[in-house]
Amino acid sequence: MTDVRPDSPATPAADGDGWPAPVAGGPLDATVEVPGSKSLTNRLLVLAALADGPGVLRGALRSRDADLMVAGLRSLGVEVAEGDAASELRVTPGPLRGPAEVDCGLAGTVMRFLPPVAALADGTVRFDGDEGARVRPMGPVLAGLQALDVGVGAGEGGPVTSGRAPTTLPFTIRGRGHVRGGSVDVDASASSQFVSGLLLAAARFDQGLTLRHTGRTLPSMPHIDMTVQVLRDVGVVVDDSRASIWRVEPGTIAARDVRVEPDLSNAGPFLAAALVAGGTVRVAGWPTTTTQPGAMLGDLLTAMGGHATLADGVMTVTGTGEVRGVDVDLHAAGELAPTIAALAALAGSPSRLRGIAHLRGHETDRLAALASEITRLGGQAEETRDGLVITPRPLHGATFRTYHDHRMATSAALLGLRVPGVVVQDVATTAKTLPGFTGMWDRMLAGASVGAATR
Ligand SMILES: O=C(O)C1=C[C@@H](OP(=O)(O)O)[C@@H](O)[C@H](O)C1
Ligand SMILES: C=C(OP(=O)(O)O)C(=O)O
């Protein structure tokens, strides 16, 4: 059995040539330790920055998205220092102030969670990010802030409180040191992060916030529940008893010393590997209760032919190498879709993934990206209005394009376990949430029993 930890040395990935995804040599037998949850780390950083005193995050994720959040908060006047370990972050709130520049990279959590914090700052804060971030939807958060009398401007333009709010990066927030708060309507059908971003800062608004979601669908409900939970954990009063309406009372945010759960969505490709290669993969530190959508992995992988058990904080998935197709609605857990799509392409029967139209606004248009890259390997994957239909076909090697999307890269690795010659373009993009991915993947495979047939 192999123990895989995030600090395992990464296989040097040949720059430009891509990373040749290793084929599984036989059934797996590995225990994997994944780093802290991106979603929890970035929420807890925001709350620590708005708290009534210094706080500590232990087991925090250190990755591009988390480091961009740290840098963004520092630029607003918050002190964030490393403790004894890189994953220990000591946060000391300070007066929030501009002028400041926030680089969002490609991080949805940074571009949606920090504008409401910037609105509390005294001064102007300019937001921008990667080229690919400039097409990710932002409008409802910015229009929501504008409706609360916050000045919002497009690009280099001056912030305004009337007229149409910008719909994408870059934009400018004109903080006045406080936000009135009150009531706001937001259409969050394109991203749950519009709701989470506004709720996270809302206790610091003069009147708190009543937010009503006006769209027909709402993705990623577990992530909104996660927001409500972390707010309650720091003493904020939140009423979520009415469908699509959240009320956050104004009040202080208590400073805390907290431990971050491991990132269950990042555990996905490792656990799924057991279905593809056969054998057993365990993920340590699995929480007994969690708001992370990765909690659905046990049921999903079971539906696809695996056997999943959770005991003593260890999630164990065993597979035979035979994968079953599924018809599944993933609107609550869109983050898992790239992993499930890769499994579907290796299954013995067709799959339908539904409820994930909003994936078109993720790191890339994930529906288009998955369809075209699975097709590039010889598979059959078609986009539907709200998802994908994947019909298994014999696959062959090719360079799998990743479009700066960490989950495209991990999905390619999963396909490569079975399909010789899969080369993952820009595997370094996994550093968005999982630096050291290739090293962890190699070490997981090193535990494979030598000599067993490759399926
Ligand atoms: O709030 C969060 O931490 C997240 C919410 C989800 O966003 P969407 O609702 O935009 O899918 C999820 O996909 C993303 O990876 C993280
Ligand atoms: C959609 C994702 O990220 P982001 O937080 O940038 O939206 C993701 O990690 O799958």
TrEMBL record:
InterPro entries hit by this protein: Enolpyruvate_Tfrase_dom, Enolpyruvate_Tfrase_sf, EPSP_synthase, EPSP_synthase_CS, RNA3'P_cycl/enolpyr_Trfase_a/b
GO CC terms, sorted: cytoplasm
- List the taxonomic lineage: Bacteria, Bacillati, Actinomycetota, Actinomycetes, Micrococcales
- EC number(s) per UniProt? 2.5.1.19
Q: How is this protein named in the record?
A: 3-phosphoshikimate 1-carboxyvinyltransferase
Q: How does it assemble?
A: Monomer.
Q: Which GO biological process entries does UniProt record here?
A: amino acid biosynthetic process; aromatic amino acid family biosynthetic process; chorismate biosynthetic process
| UniProtKB keywords | Amino-acid biosynthesis, Aromatic amino acid biosynthesis, Cytoplasm, Transferase
Q: Give the active-site positions.
A: 335 (proton acceptor)
Q: Which residues bind phosphoenolpyruvate?
A: 38, 108, 136, 193, 366, 407, 432
Q: Which Pfam families match?
A: EPSP_synthase
NCBIfam families for the chain: aroA
Q: What does this protein do?
A: Catalyzes the transfer of the enolpyruvyl moiety of phosphoenolpyruvate (PEP) to the 5-hydroxyl of shikimate-3-phosphate (S3P) to produce enolpyruvyl shikimate-3-phosphate and inorganic phosphate.
Q: Where is the Enolpyruvate transferase domain?
A: 25-438
